[in-house]
Amino acid sequence: MSITVFLSHQWLSFWRGRNANKSLAIQIVIGIFYLLIFLEIAALGIVLPFILNETMPGKDPITLFTSYIVYYFLVGLLARFQLQELPSLSIQPYLTQNISRKKMLQFLNVRSLIHVINFLPLFVFIPFTVVEIIPAYGTIAGFCFLIAMFSLVINNHFLNMYIKRKTVDSSWFFLGVVVFIAALKGLDYLKVLSFEKTSSYAFIELLHKPILCLLPLALAAYTFLLNNRYLKSHLYIEELVSEKKLTISKNYSFLDKYGDIGEMISLELKLIFRNKRPRSLMILSGVILLYGFLFYPRYVETGNYAALFLFALLITGMFITNYGQFLFAWQSSHFDGIMSYNINMKQYIKAKFTLFVVVCSLQFLLASFYGLMSWRILPIQLAAFLYGIGVNSFATIYAATFNYRYLNLTKSASMNFQGIGTMQWIQSLVFSFGPALIFYLLNKFIGFWTAVISISVLGMIGLAFHEMLINWLACQFNMRKHKILEGFRER
Amino acid sequence: MISIKNLKKTYKGIDAVNIEALEIHAGEVIGLVGNNGAGKTTFFRLLLDLIRSNEGEIISKGNIVTQTEEWKSYTAAYIDEGFLIDYLTPEEYFYFVGKLNQLSKPDVDAFLQTYLAFFDDAILNKGKYIRDFSKGNQFKIGIVAALLSNPELLILDEPFANLDPTTQLRLVDMIKAMAANNSMCILVSSHDINQVSEVSSRILLMEKGKIIKDIAGGETAYEELVDYFKVRG
């Protein structure tokens, strides 16, 4: 059995996976999305010299570029900790077949290399080398520079694999690398030791003496062999998958006094914090809070309140959109159970709504500190918050009753399109741009306060009629319950 | 307790379940047997309103299952891992199910004390999530959680298949005792005709969605079933 057979199986599993079976439209949208990212990064490689010239005129672009290479690879290692997963489990069905260990190792190594993160750097380094380095230092130097860069990419790749295999939890390494980068940057800043100068000195030395590219090459070979040797002696499933952490059981006992709804919310909180995918979504919702620092000042200055409102909607309501689009799908692995436990459907829906309100209120309170930037942010955020919990929350629950796709909670969330259907794409567009458009029109033609108050009133109407809306949603849910159940059983 | 009229579920034109009439009474232990694809699990899922029937209805204590939720308060089931919340520890899961049935933590603890032998010291206080237990132990957790609410109707899909011999025998005794003492109605499906004829008071044999035999359990039932399955093979 040659390695191409393994790879063709992987190819088939990618396209035939039940959840990969998305409509053509979605695949095209995702395809365009990826293409755009690749194009942007390739364009970055070409225009980088010009950007460097613009921002720091008079300095040699190659010196600047090379001074950041080490940082680039350190940050790249961080990204790998988050984005790259071990492909170990994919060999499970082959372990009992008549296949040599050597083949299996080859497969694991080759398979792990096939990852976006290994291809992206090429789109930066190749254009930069062609545009800048080759004219200045000649073809051989440029070629060797590329070899050095690829070697460092490969080195990073296998280093990450090795660390992930060796350790139960890579978050300490993550933290370690963050501290290391901060320390380097700090030393640079305090002018104690210029790491950037060292970096550029080393790489420019490499351009002068291309033979030095053998050094990174040797480094890559070393990490590869290190990883390979470890794998060779640990080719057992239980050893390939990093060990599970011991349970740190957190109980949300303060929710006990709220009866069944409190119990269901505590269940949902456990779901979020004990599973990889919802956990990373939750972290994302927290990170989004910082968007204000990036975008608010610009819009406050230009008085573009409609755009500000759009971001306020994101900042205060990200949890609803993110978590809500899979509202029921989060529980898809045990939905049969949820539907046959002694749970009243109205209470079930109400618990979900309450969770939305609680988390959004928290986000809103934290976001209120932006009021220090400009007082106008406060009414806008209040309107966005009220609209979020009064309208978007119900609309999201309604939309979720159309989501019939099973979701795997243990896969990471970034770049993960599992369980996303056409409805979810339309939903996220309509739910954020719809109200923003209303705000824009009202603000433009009538006035700021009319816009703020109208949007807030919409939200308050929703809140006033929440019991009725929940009853209606429970009916809607019951109508499609069997379809949801059927969809979730297809894994 | 349960009466079924003209229940029909088809997949792509093929009958998965097709039951004209069936009455199930409190205190009965019903063993459901039949080869793969006979419709046992589909029938159980219909009873729990987890799939929609094409025709007919199931009436549980006077209420139509698809239209009310009252049956949930006295029905408990364990069909597969899809009934377990796998990111909870077993204790948390028991407390959760207990709470849904108005049982306090001490109530649940007292209940679990009576199942220590059944757990064989492999379930409680292990500091593990349910997803990290073996399939057999997950089954134990599921069965005990189903019993927790002291249901009037209990549905277990192939409980013997995943259990070790000791636990299988314990479960047989438990089922018999529960039916006798609490007049619980229990539906059990199984491929083990020996065990199923021992435990059941009534046996339903399914073939291609239809109930083709409705006989009393016991020694004679075992022989009748052996005859049937031999010919099929």
Report what the structure shows.
The complex is a heterodimer of chains A (491) and B (233). Helices cover 75% and strands 0% of the residues of chain A. Chain A has 21 helices and no strands. Chain B is α/β, with parallel strands linked by helices and 233 residues long. Chain B is 36% helix and 26% strand. In chain B, strand 9 and strand 10 form a beta hairpin. In chain B, 45% of the residues are buried. The chains are: A mainly alpha (491), B alpha/beta (233). Chains A and B meet through helix 12, helix 16 and helix 21 of A and strand 6 and helix 2 of B.
Structural class of chain A: mainly alpha
Biggest sheet record of chain A: none
Class inferred from helices and paired strands of chain B? alpha/beta
Estimate the strand proportion of chain A.
under 5%
Distance between the termini of chain A: 28 Å
Q: Could you name the CATH homologous superfamily of the largest domain in chain B?
A: P-loop containing nucleotide triphosphate hydrolases
How would you summarize what this structure contains?
Chain A is mainly α and 491 residues long.
Please give the structural blueprint.
The complex is a heterodimer of chains A (491) and B (233).
Chain A: H1 3-16, H2 24-55, H3 61-67, H4 69-83, H5 101-113, H6 116-137, H7 139-166, H8 171-189, H9 195-208, H10 214-233, H11 237-240, H12 259-274, H13 276-288, H14 291-302, H15 305-324, H16 335-340, H17 345-367, H18 377-400, H19 422-445, H20 448-464, H21 466-489
Helix pairs in contact in A: 2-3, 2-6, 3-9, 4-7, 4-8, 6-7, 7-9, 7-10, 12-13, 12-17, 13-15, 14-15, 15-17, 15-18, 15-19, 17-18, 17-21, 18-19, 18-20, 18-21, 19-20
Chain B: E1 2-11, E2 14-24, E3 29-33, H1 40-47, E4 55-60, E5 63-64, E6 75-78, H2 90-100, H3 105-113, H4 116-119, H5 135-148, E7 153-157, H6 165-182, E8 185-189, H7 193-199, E9 202-207, E10 210-216, H8 219-232
Parallel strand pairs in B: 3-8, 3-9, 6-7, 7-8
Antiparallel strand pairs in B: 1-2, 1-4, 4-5, 9-10
Helix pairs in contact in B: 2-5, 7-8
